[in-house]
Amino acid sequence: MQRQSDLLFNAKGAKMTTDIKPTLASVQKASREIPLLSDNTINGILNAVAEAAVSESSFILSENRKDLERMDKKNPKYDRLKLTEERLKSIADDMRNVAKLPSPLGRVLREATRPNGMRLKKVSVPFGVIGIIYEARPNVSFDVFSLCLKSGNACVLKGGSDADYSNRAIIGVIHKVLDRFNVNPHIVELLPADREATAQLLSAREYIDLIIPRGSSGLINFVRENASVPVIETGAGICHTYFDEFGDKEKGADIICNAKTRRVSVCNALDCAIVHERRLADLPFLCERLAEKSVIIYADPKAYAALEGHYPAELLRHATDESFGTEFLDYKMAVKTASDFEEALAHIQTYGSKHSECIVTENRERAERFTQLVDAACVYTNVSTAFTDGAQFGLGAEIGISTQKLHARGPMGLEEITSYKWIIEGEGQTRP
Question: Are strands 418-425 and 119-126 parallel, antiparallel or unpaired?
């Protein structure tokens, strides 16, 4: 039974939400127990959770269906929300991969002896307690737990109401495994899905060491603007592919189609293709396979003229100002014509989100200039942006794609969710 003392009340005395401070205090206390676990125990837990994700798939999928029934299938978040047996197997594989990775803790990052004999070591350590705020992506619950445990961190999860049934099922499965290993289940907790819990989490400086938001630009901006806890932004993915005047059209068609249509609801999906003006004649070929996937194209005037009569009329639209700088998360894409390389760079600088950008070119000098000048976490030459992913980068899984520049950038794996401390040893030295 819920105690009245655990409830918050507004000025009129109406119940608002459960006070999450007791939960946060329990997580903080549990976080001090994780460094005492051996790497073998941690790996055993991760492998057992991976097994449970598959063996308990019927239960997890039945709870996931409750969430899916509440969402319109046309909603771009629907695909992110949906779990399948295949996706659960993939999630389990990611957790097993994390278990195989070496521990990121205790690494000596720097070592020196000062002239007075004082010995210094810079050693990797956990952050402590990491708070994750995320939207309709229940796979995040598994990913965050596996990465946090392997890196010695406890985690507080704040999922959206859209995925609440799914998230609670997943955390329930994880807690059962932790009980089996006699490990404090408070090392991972799921908060209520209401907004009041978010507000409390953002100001819980005494309990939370770091907050990582995963979701839309609206969510990320809200967290950045309202948090008193330090934040690492895993920003929206407004991704471009620039087809240069020296581009290979076969490579270009493959890359554009894959980046746009592999999974439209993910942050590394292509939102805007930029085409050098001299290659507009190749634009119908570059977009041919997009029509098979019913991709709606918002084209600027020159691109529209090049596509008209060669792309299905019902899928071809005139671009507006809103067409650029939009993360579509859908079967939609903008096309921009660039008169030269500099205009392409300027467009990416203006409308990109510093996530993933690609150039398709056979000119090595042009590729090197693009790589040097484009400000993004991941910059590709002749490779689909769909590869911006922790597992694809060999990190096992990811806790998010950081689009900022402080501490971590790009896919955040184990090393990116550790900090460090200095260890100093001596024989009684004092400072004059």
Answer: antiparallel
